[in-house]
């Protein structure tokens, strides 16, 4: 017998096996690429680093504020690979950004950026601790994906998964 919740899943294209475990249709899984939380946290880190870095330029944390803004621009190119095709950048910068195409390398860069923001505690607490926490959370997501040996799949929303090839 099929329950009411089963009808919902089956009506929306999910398939069920004999154990009643549901798998999403191929179009949903390829669109999301199962990297949704990692990508979303990465975009949130970009926004937080830029906004709070800009806010901290006008305080005693001017160096860390500028550093957070630089981090946000680096993260933009890491998280949105389509920008490497659109923006005129040097081949050295492109090679540097292309190093971060695996979950492990992204976890390393997020931990490094988080550690830099945690160093604001040397002078005193600031709002740059907020991006430090979220950078650490993003690093944990990428690190867990690396531990599970998941292939990195960029979402089509952020310009990954072959979107750059479709444009050219």
From TrEMBL:
SMART domains: Cg6151-P. It is a multi-pass membrane protein. The chain crosses the membrane at residues 41-58, 64-84, 104-123, 129-147. Its main location: Golgi. GO terms for cellular component: Golgi membrane. It is found in: Golgi apparatus membrane. One of its GO terms (biological process) is vesicle-mediated transport. InterPro entries: TVP18/Ca-channel_flower. Belongs to the TVP18 family. This is Golgi apparatus membrane protein TVP18. It comes from Polytolypa hystricis (strain UAMH7299).
């Amino acid at each position: 017998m099929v329950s009411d919740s089963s009808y919902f899943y089956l009506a929306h294209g999910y398939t069920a096996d004999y154990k009643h475990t549901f798998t999403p249709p191929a179009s949903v899984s390829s669109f999301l690429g199962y990297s949704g939380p990692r990508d979303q946290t990465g975009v949130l880190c970009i926004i937080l680093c830029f906004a709070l870095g800009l806010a901290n330029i006008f305080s005693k944390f001017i160096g860390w504020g500028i550093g957070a803004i630089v981090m946000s621009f680096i993260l933009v190119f890491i998280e949105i690979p389509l920008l490497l095709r659109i923006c005129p950048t040097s081949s050295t910068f492109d090679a540097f950004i292309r190093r971060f195409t695996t979950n492990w390398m992204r976890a390393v860069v997020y931990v490094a950026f988080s550690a830099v923001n945690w160093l604001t505690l040397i002078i005193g607490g600031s709002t740059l601790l907020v991006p430090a926490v979220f950078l650490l959370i993003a690093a944990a997501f990428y690190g867990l994906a690396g531990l599970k040996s998941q292939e990195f799949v960029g979402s089509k929303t952020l310009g990954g998964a072959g979107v750059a090839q479709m444009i050219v």
